[in-house]
Structures
1.
Amino acid sequence: MALIVQKYGGTSVGTTERIKNVARRIAKWKAQGHDLVIVVSAMSGETNRLIGLAKDIQEYPDARELDVLVSTGEQVTIGLLAMALKEIGVPAKSYCGWQVPVVTDSSHSKARIQSIDDAAMRADLDAGQVVIVAGFQGIDEVGSITTLGRGGSDTSAVALAAALKADECQIYTDVDGVYTTDPRVVPEARRLKTITFEEMIEMASLGSKVLQIRSVEFAGKYKVRLRVLSSFEEEGEGTLITFEEDQNMEKAVVAGIAFDRNEARINVKGVPDKPGIAYQILGPIADANIEVDMIIQNVGEHGTTDFSFTVPRGEFQRTLGILRDVQTHIGATKIDADDKVAKISIVGVGMRSHCGIASTMFRTLAEEGINIQLISTSEIKVSVLVDEKYLELGVRVLHKAFGLDQAVEA
Ligand code: ADP
Ligand code: ASP
Ligand code: MG
């Protein structure tokens, strides 16, 4: 008998029929004698619908009230799932984030979990109840409802698993595991039986939204056994996130390919090549709370240089506005900007011990006539920025070039 936290995503609870189906699955686990804490997302499309309503009223919705509004999506699904379980004779009790409570900081729409009180949940589990908790939401110290950022139910689940010292946290979604790349873009993508925690962190941070990055960080920090599975299939072991590399396993050097359309590129040209310039350009952007991703500065010539970086697409206009002042101040000759760009990244812990991976990537893209605008690397990843129209082609050819469409696991 184990204590298991299961999370069901938006598509998995997208209709009342699907909620009944989830209830039947939970009943099976319960019948095997397991203690179960279930985290659910809002029905698919609901969070977007609620954000749309808010924007009908305020162009930039009030942060506190937006969280009051969008957190209602998950309140609907916990209630429905508890009813569906009771209907088939399984004792269940639902909790909103504030009822647990899941205490967070006060950064509305991107709050971080600070503590979770497990007392009430434990008492319910001891009494034989299935505990159902609304994902994505918490409460701050002044009693305001907070939310954890898009995809945040994953993080709620892993945090609850950590707090309860659960034996496993299972993320049920609409694919049967973590794939070599998004199977919706590359049909030849393969499910990975395991992926290392480090690789999963990179994949999530570079755009693979199958797990929210903070959920992976939590799993790493508290050593939560984390698995991604399909809610639509009865059997299947999904993908296990492992903490150690399996030395015996004949693994591909590149484990997976991530991509991100949420990028915009800015190139500040003819910048004086002197100390403090990077700070003068990026300082005001940081002050405006805009996250800068890739950054490149060229070696200067004749006293000037070019400085390029990327920001989230939604911040493109705001960044350009800030840079207009900066340009005059530092005397840059020109600002060249493009918000139709995308980032493709190859990820793999095997890159540490292999050379030539980046050059294979560059050659493969060159053979397709895909121009690389910016490059950034770390020990276990290489990212390139390309014209958005080449994104899918780029991902497909790289997937093939690194042999990811062929089974390599024992
Ligand atoms: P949920 O609503 O269950 O949280 P999400 O839509 O957030 O589901 O995440 C699942 C989706 O992630 C899949 O449908 C798939 O299109 C996408 N995805 C992106 N990259 C990957 C990957 N490497 N492996 C599996 N799925 C991926
Ligand atoms: N409902 C929230 C969202 O759509 C949280 C989640 O699904 O994980 O982002
Ligand atoms: Mg998700």
Note: The CA atoms of residues 58 and 194 lie 44 Å apart.
2.
Amino acid sequence: MLLPQRVRLVEVGPRDGLQNEARPVSLEDKVRLVNDLTDAGVGYIEVGSFVSPKWVPQMAGSAQLFANIQRKDGVTYAALAPNLRGFEDALAAGVKEVAVFAAASESFSQRNINCSISESLDRFLPIMEAARLHGVQVRGYVSCVLGCPYEGDVSPQQVAAVANELYAMGCYEVSLGDTIGIGTPGATRRLFDVVAGQIPRGKLAGHFHDTYGQALANIYAGLLEGIQVFDSSVAGLGGCPYAKGATGNVASEDVLYMLNGLGIATSIDLDKLIAAGQRISEAVGRSNGSRVARARLSA
Ligand code: HMG
Ligand code: MG
């Protein structure tokens, strides 16, 4: 199969990356990160979450963050919303695109959002209705698509069923999340192939955490399946607070380097992205999780 000519990267570092930081990250550092990513040419930035601050304290200042970033025309600044309350808070903060998040495994759904899969889907219906009313686009996530930290194996059919519900209720795109980074390329190809039996490939995205070092290979497997949207996190920041041991998403710099090498176009400047990742890594006191950034910065 031919590789796509162009790929859209969804930068989830400010949200998926920073949500897992135990120590508070200052508003100033978060604002600078989002502005640096904008300057690097990133077209889609997941800025924060309108979730319960008791569940994810690091995302508590998301409204303030949205009030302070410099928005550039043509760039999408999105936020997670788990329920109508979160959607309304996001709307009040001037958010134009939200993401709802469900899971393919019941145990993860309970641990992450304290309800069953079907209850979560019911909660999203009023969000979809309000979003339509306000012209807000909604992206959907399915977690644990290649395995669950509590239940182990997850079948592609289970994933397809949840993804299809999200698509049918009006999510314009569904991102399939390997939350614990456990998948391998063959399983990834099979997953996209099965889910694409229900949802067009152009409406699917891949979201790979890099816990087992398989994320780039899984993205390549996704490209071979005709997937053109991938989520990534600058400097490989992050993890999921409800998936113990899960590390950050694949580093955006590493994905971009691979895409550049494959001759696949994006809108992003690698040098500026590396600088953005290094700046936030220093600000949060972490070593830079991007192999490409480390290589370039030590050269
Ligand atoms: P709950 O405790 O069942 O909710 O939590 P509740 O309705 O009973 O409310 C409890 C309290 O939370 C109340 O406050 C509510 O007002 C408040 P209290 O009366 O106790 O003071 N509350 C809220 N506050 C702020 N914003 C809200 C909100 N809703 C209720 N939106 C709930 C249910 C969904 C709220 C909770 O479980 C939650 O916030 N979970 C978020 C978990 C999360 O953010 N996880 C990480 C993101 S998902 C992820 O990382 C995976 C992904 O990257 C893909 C992948 O990798 O697989 C997307
Ligand atoms: Mg994630």
Note: The domain at 8-298 is CATH 3.20.20.70 (TIM Barrel).
